[in-house]
Design goal:
Elements (H helix, E strand, L loop, with lengths): L4 E5 L8 H12 L4 E5 L10 H5 L4 E3 L8 H11 L5 H14 L3 H16 L5 E5 L3 H13 L2 E6 L2 H5 L2 H10 L2 E4 L2 H10 L6 E3 L28 E6 L8 H10 L6 E6 L5 H10 L6 E5 L3 H10 L2 E4 L14 H8 L3 E5 L4 H4 L7 E3 L4 H13 L1 H18 L2 H15 L18
Parallel strand pairs: 1-2, 1-4, 2-3, 4-5, 5-6, 6-7, 8-9, 8-11, 9-10, 11-12, 12-13
Helix pairs in contact: 3-5, 4-6, 5-6, 10-15
Length: 425
């Protein structure tokens, strides 16, 4: 009987990572036996309906080692008897020499607990190439099993190249969700076929099967303003401050409202910015919402806007699922030309794209879409066609399921630990 795949995630469940829950549920339905391993406990007030459908058990690792010293000590005593412990320890020490952080110590401690408590797993798959992949890599070495990863956005662009090279050399396989990510990772891999492009796609059964009818609003009636929506965590890379600045720059005679769905560290600052720009009464802040209520917002929106950008530390979006959701539900999209977004949206064909951080260009695109309901309708129709034909969720899940099945085969003769010399035999 094939042993389960341990899927390592940062936290479970998380509202901002619906794409992971969607994938796990689909893999379950394809017969993949999954054990969810979470590095931290949930912090969101809500869960999405999809989380209640997932039957895989969840195993929580200690988020901070000092909170569970007895558990970590017992795991260390047990893990030391595993055949791959010495290899994993050398691997970790090589990493620690280049990354002397408490987080690096915590990753090894969590890997000890995973390996000691879940030794029955057949392979490990990590969502995100940074912390979860480190825990998966160390634990897989201890257990002598294969591991793999899904790389998404921040993890691709903020993890040091030396670390990505070594993970790519050790992993059985990896998938990533944008062509830009794929090209970057393939250049660091020992062989380009280590990583494959698999778009997240959308499980269309969770959405209304028809596009939503929109009133041809043109911004001329204050009693019936054009409804703009933006969805995302209130963090720097989402560019909400740029979006607010751009909307404050459109013609003051135009009638529009902006609904913002999402929570985050910049909430208070963004509210103050909207007030200072004189548009506070046009912006409605909804915080984080369950997915069914987010769908309602998409259905009511005339226009979806996303002003993503690159942060100072390199963090950026991949291919935001919210853009696919907006297009599936018939909202015209205005977005920045960032990362994987041009793989979904072709400028003037199924959306409008502008350079990131270009407030004037964003304002012009928004104003153009506000005043022209015909343009919005054309872009929205084309967007729905693209999402339903080019981004197949089922095809991607089938490929991942096949690779996970292969990765459960035993590891034979692992190579030397990179970054540190192996002792002479």
């Amino acid at each position: 009987m094939r042993r389960p795949v341990a899927v390592v995630v940062k936290g479970w469940p998380r509202l901002s990572e619906t794409f992971i829950a969607q994938e796990i549920l689909a893999l379950e339905r394809r017969g993949v036996d999954i054990l969810i391993v979470s590095l931290r406990r949930p912090t969101d007030r809500f869960t999405h309906p999809i989380h209640a459908e997932i039957r895989s058990p969840v195993h929580y690792l200690p988020e901070y080692l000092h909170d569970a010293p007895g558990r970590v000590l017992r795991a260390w005593m047990e893990a030391r008897r595993l055949p791959g412990y010495s290899r994993a320890r050398r691997m970790w020490l090589a990493d620690l020499a280049r990354d002397r952080t408490r987080n690096r110590v915590r990753r090894f401690g969590q890997a000890l607990v995973l390996a000691a408590e879940l030794g029955r797993v057949g392979s490990i798959h990590a969502h995100f190439l940074h912390t979860p992949a480190s825990v998966a890599r160390y634990a897989s070495a201890m257990l002598g099993i294969g591991w793999s990863f899904s790389a998404h956005a921040k993890d691709v662009w903020t993890t040091p190249d030396w670390e990505k090279r070594e993970k790519l050399a050790d992993a059985r396989f990896g998938v990533t969700c944008t062509q830009a990510n794929l090209e970057h990772l393939a250049a660091l891999a020992p062989s380009p076929d280590v990583v494959a492009l698999v778009y997240h796609g959308l499980d269309r059964g969770r959405f209304p099967q028809r596009g939503m009818e929109r009133t041809p609003r043109d911004g001329s009636d204050p009693a019936d303003p054009v409804r703009i929506l933006s969805v995302g965590r209130l963090v720097e890379k989402k560019g909400f401050d740029d979006l607010l600045a751009a909307l404050a720059s459109v013609s003051p005679s135009l009638a529009w409202t902006l609904d913002v769905v999402g929570g985050g560290a910049l909430d208070a600052r963004l509210r103050r910015q909207a007030a200072a720009l004189g548009i506070g009464d046009r912006v409605r802040w909804h915080g984080s919402l369950p997915h069914d209520r987010v769908v309602e917002r998409f259905a009511a929106a005339d226009l979806f806007a996303l002003a993503s950008r690159v942060c100072a530390d390199g963090d950026r979006d991949g291919l935001p699922n919210v853009l696919m959701e907006a297009q599936l539900l018939g909202a015209a999209c205005v977005a920045t030309r960032m990362s994987g977004t041009p793989e979904l949206i072709e400028h003037e064909s199924n959306g409008l794209l502008v350079p990131p951080r270009d407030i004037a260009a964003l304002a012009a695109a928004l104003e153009r879409a506000i005043v022209d309901p015909g343009l919005r309708s054309r872009l929205a129709d084309a967007g729905r066609r693209v999402v339903t034909t080019r981004f197949s969720f089922e095809d991607g899940v089938a490929r991942i399921a096949a690779r996970l099945t292969d990765s459960s085969n035993p590891v034979a003769n692992p190579g030397p630990v990179r970054g540190i010399c192996e002792p002479a035999s």
